[in-house]
Specification:
With 249 residues, the chain is α/β, with parallel strands linked by helices. The chain has nine helices and eight strands. The two termini are 28 Å apart. Bound molecules: pyridoxal-5'-phosphate. The site of pyridoxal-5'-phosphate has 15 residues, from strand 8 and helix 9.
């Protein structure tokens, strides 16, 4: 794999196009640039290495088995792995072994499992605390979509906003976890604007109690402009950089 192979060129062009979209979408000239997390799920470790050479420092994965294997293969201590998928508590130990952050925290039992795993990890490696985002269900922003089976957010995951402050408290109190902020995926097939507007309000609520938790992880390939308009600080972009992946996530 030479640094200038055809795939590297393709990734460089797409990365550049996304970076230009981000720059164009920033709400004010000179606004702080959001972090770009490149979602590499379903794509090989070789692509992560190519992205690394193109200056990418943050990558996202949504399945522990795949992420753990890639993190071991790439083995770059400067690269930050962000876990963005639904997570079973029994995978906490594995995730704590490579992850810089978890964006998908939606229940107290997962907080407990991750804290225990991260305490053990810190004793072994002295690593920094795990950055934790509360994943929120934003289907409440769409009252008109009420109540198909499972709700408008069916399958997208996330905690009901009414439980957010309680979970924030637990994360903030955990020994080896740091409350980083909030995260959400806009419901499928609807205008993302009401979702991100709600997320921005919820983020402000968390920040009022926990000023350190200012991060807002929102915006994917198709809706990053809208997310930026509402204050996203961390974008998670996959297919517009890596290309298509198998349709079912
Ligand atoms: C896959 C995934 C992304 C990236 O989505 P794209 O549409 O490919 O940019 C972002 N966030 C989460 C939670 C994902 O699972």
């Amino acid at each position: 794999m030479s640094p200038d192979d055809a795939r590297t060129t393709q990734l460089a062009e797409r990365l550049d196009a996304v970076r230009r979209r981000i720059a164009a979408a920033l709400p004010t000239a000179g606004a702080i640039e959001p972090a770009l997390i490149v979602v590499t799920k379903f794509h090989p470790g070789a692509d992560v290495q190519r992205l690394r050479r193109l200056g990418v420092a943050d990558v996202g994965e949504n399945r522990d088995q795949e992420a753990a294997a890639k993190a071991a293969e790439v083995a770059d201590p400067e690269l930050r792995w962000h876990f963005i998928g639904q997570l079973q508590s029994n995978k906490a130990r594995s995730v704590a072994g490579y992850a810089h952050s978890v964006h998908s925290i939606d229940r107290p039992s997962l907080v407990k499992a991750l804290d225990r795993a991260m305490v053990a990890e810190q004793q072994e490696t002295g690593r920094a605390r795990l950055q934790c985002y509360i994943q929120l269900d934003l289907s409440g922003a769409y009252p008109e979509l009420a109540a198909p089976a499972g709700g408008a957010n069916s399958g997208r995951g996330g905690l009901a906003p009414s439980s957010m402050m309680g979970l924030a408290e637990r994360i903030a109190a955990a020994q080896a976890l740091e409350l980083a902020g909030v995260m959400a995926v806009a419901p499928l097939g609807v205008d993302p604007e009401p979702a991100f507007e709600l997320l921005a309000r919820l983020s402000a609520e968390v920040v009022e109690e926990h000023p350190q938790a200012w991060r807002m992880s929102a915006g994917m390939s198709h809706d990053l402009e809208t997310a930026l308009a509402y204050g996203a600080t961390h974008l998670r972009v996959g297919s517009d950089i890596l290309g298509p992946r198998p349709a079912v996530l």
